[in-house]
Amino acid sequence: MNKDKTNHFNSKQQRLAELAKALAHPARVAILQTLAAADECICGDFVDQLPLSQSTVSQHLKELKNAGLICASAHPPKMFYCLNKEVWKEWEELQQLVFPKGGKTAEVL
């Protein structure tokens, strides 16, 4: 019997885990680094830089978009991607659950 135990964790813990999962692949980290250096990119930009197929890059972009870490806007025939700065602020705040600033110990729940 497989029980869903995520309901035992608060919404901040669940969101931090969701974002961390989206970041848990080096290709996604590389995509985010590229987006941080540029205002926006298309899928082909990442395909040119990464040793991955277009379909694999698209899947990684989908994961990042589903987590809210990036935004996509369609300008047919291309899709443009950029960082979602609001979610990156949220990410920084949520990290304080584990790594509080000022060298304090994280609050145990």
Automatic annotation (TrEMBL):
Keyword Cell wall biogenesis/degradation assigned: no
Coiled-coil ranges (or none): none
Domain HTH arsR-type residues, every copy: 9-109
Record keywords: DNA-binding, Transcription, Transcription regulation
SUPFAM superfamilies documented for this protein: Winged helix' DNA-binding domain (SSF46785)
UniProt xrefs under InterPro entries: ArsR-like_HTH, HTH_ArsR_DNA-bd_dom, HTH_MetalResp_TranReg, WH-like_DNA-bd_sf, WH_DNA-bd_sf
SMART domains linked to this entry: HTH_ARSR
MF terms in GO: DNA binding; DNA-binding transcription factor activity
Name of the protein described by the UniProt record: Transcriptional regulator
Lineage of the species this protein comes from: Bacteria, Pseudomonadati, Bacteroidota, Cytophagia, Cytophagales
